[in-house]
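Re: Re: ligand-bound prediction request (bumping)

Still looking for help on this. To restate: I need the protein modeled with threonylcarbamoyladenylate bound, output as structure tokens. Inputs repeated here so nobody has to scroll up.
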Amino acid sequence: MTILEADIAFAAQQLQSGNLVGLPTETVYGLAADARLDLAVAKIYATKGRPQFNPLIVHVSSVKQAQEYVNFNPLAKQLADAFWPGPLTMVLPRKEGCGISHLVSAGLNTLAVRVPNHPIALQLIRESGCPIAAPSANPSNQISPTTAQHVRDGFRGLDQPTTIIDGGPCQVGLESTVIAVAEDHVILLRPGGLSVESIQNICSLKLADKNSSIQSPGMLAKHYAPRHPLRLNVSHVEPNEVLLAFGEPLQAKYTLNLSVTGDIIEAAANLFAMLHQLDEYPCTSIAVMPIPSTGLGLAIQDRLNRAAVR
Ligand code: TXA
Ligand code: MG
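Reply:
Sorry for the wait, this slipped through. Here it is.
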């Protein structure tokens, strides 16, 4: 076994154990976690220090694997055949029961997927058996890393990812192009490593605008919202309400607890899955206990505030 093979084997174990890995791709280094593990995904946000839950890209090793998680229309299949592996991310409808953490898609019913064009990334996905959620491996508001040293430097003095695989400098050096795929055209959500012209050789491309029905967080204001109204920062629960608790729960007919022990990372891991579950329960509204403003608490508050607007 070479040193690199040993690194990949170790990183695969780390992913399977719910830990984070600094991962080379052809675009930029990613901060990787098993996309099916709520808590591991929450660790990504905690480590990056993101004040908001932006949805993440799921990295897979083949079109076939992507089809386990999202629904492809014929155009999406054509684009995948043309540009994967490569710096193209497609936002597609999430398959129900696909097993990917709701935190990865920030509660939305779409999922961003791509097959990276990097031998180490592909081998790690195959060897670990994990679909990999990974944003760029930099603390929030810093430049995306294109070498392993950038990743180490970026997290210096902070919570470092357990393992960083050194795959040398990234060849593209720019994040992937993100598109939403409609029946007969695509919408550009983020320009990136694959040129717009290459995509236009296959189909027409529109720019995302404020009126577009497809959401690009950061660009548009659409976020996950439950069907039932939310009532935030409650100190008591009405008879027809269900409760989203944090810490010592209030009295209610039906309660899901983000974290009994008051652990904010565990709370983030549970947030979207529990909101989805509570939303299925017959009730007039969902009462939510106060969430502290520390660590991921701000991101949780942000999403709850947005979800409460109707
Ligand atoms: O090249 C890349 O794309 C790198 C490497 C690691 O793969 N990753 C990356 O991830 O740049 P991140 O998290 O920094 O950017 C993901 C982008 C964000 O703009 C996010 O809003 C968008 O993809 N995105 C993810 N899921 C989405 C969804 N369901 N709907 C709309 N936009 C989505
Ligand atoms: Mg980024």
